[in-house]
Amino acid sequence: xxxxxxxxxxxxxxxxxxxxxxxxxxxxxxxxxxxxxxxxxxxxxxxxxxxxxxxxxxxxxxxxxxxxxxxxxxxxxxxxxxxxxxxxxxxxxxxxxxxxxxxxxxxxxxxxxxxxxxxxxxxxxxxxxxxxxxxxxxxxxxxxxxxxxxxxxxxxxxxxxxxxxxxxxxxxxxxxxxxxxxxxxxxxxxxxxxxxxxxxxxxxxxxxxxxxxxxxxxxxxxxxxxxxxxxxxxxxxxxxxxxxxxxxxxxxxxxxxxxxxxxxxxxxxxxxxxxxxxxxxxxxxxxxxxxxxxxxxxxxxxxxxxxxxxxxxxxxxxxxxxxxxxxxxxxx
Length: 332
Ligand SMILES: NC(=O)c1ccc[n+]([C@@H]2O[C@H](COP(=O)([O-])OP(=O)(O)OC[C@H]3O[C@@H](n4cnc5c(N)ncnc54)[C@H](OP(=O)(O)O)[C@@H]3O)[C@@H](O)[C@H]2O)c1
Known about the structure:
Elements: E1 2-6, H1 12-15, E2 16-20, E3 30-40, H2 42-48, E4 62-63, E5 67-75, E6 87-91, E7 103-107, E8 111-113, H3 120-124, H4 127-139, E9 147-150, H5 156-167, E10 171-176, H6 181-186, E11 191-194, H7 200-203, E12 207-212, H8 217-225, E13 226-234, H9 241-246, H10 256-264, E14 268-271, H11 278-289, E15 297-302, H12 306-313, E16 321-325, H13 327-331
Parallel strand pairs: 9-10, 9-12, 10-11, 12-13, 13-14, 15-16
Antiparallel strand pairs: 1-2, 1-4, 3-5, 3-7, 3-16, 5-6, 6-8
Helix pairs in contact: 4-5
The structure holds NADP nicotinamide-adenine-dinucleotide phosphate (NAP).
NADP nicotinamide-adenine-dinucleotide phosphate (NAP) is lined by residues 41-43, 46, 128-129, 132, 151-152, 154-158, 175-177, 180, 195, 213-214, 235-236, 272-274, 313, 316-319.
């Protein structure tokens, strides 16, 4: 089968190669999916660039990609909930990384049936970002009438998080640049802040929750705009102590500046390292089918142009999700 592989750490164009490799074999609880679409995510190019070297031990060449939608073509002996021909979607666990390929094997425990009312491309756009948004907002007990700022509302995570937070009855502020104002507003945000023209800290303050998807100074600034006892949930800032332990980081200490800010505001600070979860994927399926969540796709690339998809995503300017279509190579 054809697969896009990471051959070494470095620049995207030098490190990614299309290769001909064996189709994966499956055992007991696994299924084999004929991939129709895969999504590109920032973690993919961060891995290529070597930013996750300390966390993930990789033997090159290794497949790239975590998000998949496609059709089940084989099931292991122990699989009860899927049959050949089922249309599914998943964020595959680390050991199955490599969804930008004709086929991917994965444990059926992390897979769900895809939403019936959307294409494979749209279904592939949802797992990683949707699970991240749900898990990060659940960690800080998002609830009705919470005033929440979601940074980067035009990003993959942000565009899902806005819709999810609105469905929970929250009052949603979000940041984006001028060119994205209209479509981000249409996702349901109550106040879209144009960071090119406005100081977001003046518009959104005394908040219950900041969802930090940007990191660096944004993580620290979150404490200026939450109310006393407010919550900061991050997917890019430093891990909290418990998350660091779960991620296997030894002798971890929260940066002193952050610890002081948490104490000063009596705040709750939570880091999320997204975990595959089939129940939450089914929750996403239901929300897509009842139109609570609309997938947001920016560009779709062919498999042959998959490296360009990653180069585009790495500009940091994508408007929603970047998708790689693999249905065409399966048809030829
Ligand atoms: N911990 C985890 O498990 C986890 C899971 C998923 C993602 N992440 C991380 O979370 C981050 C976001 O992921 P993503 O998939 O949403 O990324 P993405 O889709 O690549 O985000 C791109 C968007 O970010 C916006 N943006 C960039 N700078 C901004 C700023 N200063 N203010 C407001 N918006 C800004 C851009 O809009 P403009 O062009 O308008 O600036 C663009 O639309 C990434 O670093 C990713 O690695 C972590």
